[in-house]
Amino acid sequence: MVFCKQCGLLAPARVQRCPRCGAPLPPAPRRPVCGQGAAEGPVYASPSHGEDEDETMPTWQYVVMMLIFSLPVIGLFMMIWWSCGDLHYIERVRLARACLIQRILADLLVVALVLLLFSAANTMVLPLLLYH
User: Fold this and answer.
1) How far apart are alpha carbons 53 and 94 in whole angstroms?
2) Chain-centre distance of CA 52, in angstroms?
């Protein structure tokens, strides 16, 4: 995505002229590709890599991903795997990262609730055991 210098519109990277004012757009900036060898420096991809309409992920792959993510151990492993790589479908990376964040937050909430219930049970049961 590039900004038009004349009107400020955010235009897709493939467009050469602004859809609003018709001014020529600057070339899209190159961005580093994740997962490439850090020792050699960042490897740059074309701006449309993973953002092209032809490269959208089919709906059935979303369904399969969500089914895999519902499996306890395998789902967590696949969330981590897809979060760190596979730039063929950028939607897959984004979905895996979102599901991983959601799972981490849900697990932290469960741990907090268990600790809260455990401490509440100790404060109610311990005095009863001591005084009887």
Assistant:
1) 16
2) 18
Tokens coding 114: 């268990």
d(CA 132, CA 106): 39
| C-alpha span between 37 and 26 (Å, rounded) | 29
pLDDT band at 29 (very low <50, low <70, confident <90, very high): low
pTM across the whole model: 0.50
DSSP state, residue 16: S
Q: What's the pLDDT at 51?
A: 43
d(C-alpha 77, C-alpha 90), whole Å = 18
pLDDT at 95 over 70: yes
Query: How many Å apart are CA 115 and CA 104, to the nearest integer?
Result: 17
Question: E strands of 4-88, at which residues?
Answer: 10-11, 31-32, 44-45
Largest CA distance in the chain: 85
